[in-house]
Amino acid sequence: MDKQKERTFNPTCPCESLHTQKTRHIYFQPEENFWMVMTVNVPTTSSAEGKAYHGDDVQNVVCLAVLKQAYYMARLFLGPFYKLINIDNGDPSILKQKLDHFYNRYLPRLRLQHCDILDVFQGVQFLPLDKQTFLHIQCFANLIESTFADIDYIAFLYNERLIWSGLEPDDMQVVFKYLVTNLLPAFHELEQQSSTKSSKNSARFVTGPANLHNPDDNIGKIPRLYLRKIEPEPCFYQLVVYKMLGATICFFINEKVTLTVEMFRLWDAFMSPRLVKVVPLVTEYANKHNSMSSPSEGASRFVYFNRMNLAMKTTIHQDQRKTGNIAVTPQVLKILADINAQHQRMLELGCPTSETVLKTTSDYWVVGKMSNAREFYVAIQHKNANLIEINEEVKRICDNELRSIFFHV
């Protein structure tokens, strides 16, 4: 490597992207001796003067997050890449074959045009409950684990929001992403297309036997997930998912356990009568909470992320389907990611707190705060407001939506 290249690619300062007029190359080293590269075509517009390239529309922070997530998802199903290399001769054929099969299915569902700051955070959306209701859920989960020895961990979701998880946050982060963007939407779509639609109140295994009353022993296809934060060592777990009354219960069972239809029947008989009593408590509290916190038309919108527990809360997005269903302009959404990138640079320089306030040409005020391992972004559409009024509005949102959070900036 010549001196010019050494200055350009400093080994002590990793190169994460390469910009050209037509493309953007994003680099990520997920494991030792393994690199992943994503190439994105820069958007263009044509006019009488020729073709114009809009490199600013491609955000490095978003693309890098998408590339990392592509690795995390592959690792979730395949395990670490190095374990798929032949230890005798270093042959990568098996790894290539498995990655080709995985990404041929993964990439068409990526929807890169709708990726934004939520992809940067990859957070988990929790459903906050009062202490008594949460205790009911916790006792339910503990009862299952103590009754069925083969079930090592449990996660409990309601309307695609997490209430309880026995997994470590890093593992649950990737599993949650798989559940809410892939497994559960595919299940709901299949149910809608089915000629024998099941009631929302009926109980059914999402992964497992389609019909517990069939005499055959076919348990269907059970996903195998690689969990890293497991003692004594990382390994694969079978994921069994059960739905009833809007609740989703996930069982994580070691891959060495042989599953049978009889086990599913026992789980169903145990959970169904108990969920009939527990879930309505969650529904009642969630409905009350949603009616109080639902933003009105034209209201201020925000995104909150906690790096400690990976919790995320947003009113900027209407759902998690990546269909472009957002409550702010694309310009504002892009600015949020730009502010986040700036704050991350400040963090790398040793500054753990920062605040950014700016106003757009479309009369949006955009505020970004970072402090105490938490990030908070607000978009306020108020043409004639001043900085004092904007600061008061941000404080009001913090008090109403994030009561226990203290931002010291």
From TrEMBL:
Pfam families found in the cross-reference section: Intu_longin_1, Intu_longin_2, Intu_longin_3
Organism: Clastoptera arizonana (Arizona spittle bug)
Superkingdom: Eukaryota
Signal peptide: none
GO cellular component: Mon1-Ccz1 complex
CCZ1/INTU/HPS4 third Longin domain sequence ranges: 298-397
Name listed for the protein in its UniProt record: CCZ1/INTU/HSP4 first Longin domain-containing protein
Residues covered by the CCZ1/INTU second Longin domain: 151-257
Transmembrane annotation, as ranges: none
Organism classification: Eukaryota, Metazoa, Ecdysozoa, Arthropoda, Hexapoda
Family designation: Belongs to the CCZ1 family.
Alphabetical GO biological process terms: vesicle-mediated transport
